[in-house]
Amino acid sequence: MWGFKVNNFKNYIVEPKLIDGETPIKNAPVIGLSNGEQCIPQHYLKYAHSRKTVESIICDIDYSDQFPIFVCEDATGIYLQVGIIGYDNYGSADRRAQPKIVYGRKWRVEPQLPTSEIIQTAFLAVKCAREHEVRELLRFHHDGGSTTPFNTHHDLPLICQNADLVSHNSHADDEFDLSHIRYDHAKLALTEIEEIGSDKWLIEVRVQPSGKTSLPEIYTRTLHLLIDRLDMNEVYYALMAELLNLSNRHVDENFKYKNAARFSRNNSILSVANLSSTIRRKPQNVAHDFDEDFTELNYETDKTRVPTLYAGKLGQKINANLAEFDFLTGILPLTENTA
Questions:
Q1: Strands 138-142 and 99-109, how do they pair?
Q2: Origin, by domain of life (predicted)?
Q3: Range of the domain at 27
Q4: List of E strands, 174-306
Q5: Most C-beta atoms within 10 A of its C-beta, which of 16, 61, 103, 115?
């Protein structure tokens, strides 16, 4: 025996916990854990998820009422979509006072996707939705108006075709001041600049929330930015990077599946490594036909993810790129004729 609990002593049958949409490979080994529980690890399972099984998974996820996670289905299959409930940055004061819901991009979920990857897809979708909001909430006030230069809605082709209009020239007489910036209605004050090494400066920024500030991670917060060049442009970019870091950390600590914060730093990374080692180690006495089924399942799953190269410039570009790698293993992209 493997040290796991046996639920039926008469027939020595174990009953590991699976959810709808999961089926073990024939003769899949059951692994005993150090706490007395038993499991069939995800790499020994087959998946056939439907909208209903994905909905069941998402129902067990908790993060924030401001970021509901939708499970939808259309002609292309199942997908996740995060709603973002907040306040409009533009328009009249009355319009901006009313909460509004908008929706993020669609995240595809294939039926054969492991349950863990569905949860992680939701996790990443929430992070991306929150990043969108963070970028919209850093406002620069100048020339009698306000703008959000870090948002993702700028005309990228236009900017790239006119790169000279946005290139930066460092100015030695930069005024180190953040009074023209608001973040989620909070004021920012640059309180200290300290050189801490060769070409390294530590910038201290105090955040002063207002009654309209809603992001919990910036309350009573002092930010410390590390920059390589004493330049306000560097400060702006470092500020945005730190605000995104705070947002990501908030999701890490508060995104929960079945009440467990998998990505929290309260989890011991060495314990995670030990658990991973335990469940990845294949028992010695597994049935021979299991090995064959396991290998075939992995191959068939990999085949479902192989892209197709079509005739044209992009196909030629990728083919030329792949040709630079000698003895490339794995499943090569399909072509139009073999897809």
A1: unpaired
A2: Bacteria
A3: 1-48+270-305
A4: 181-183, 186-197, 200-208, 222-227, 256-257
A5: 115
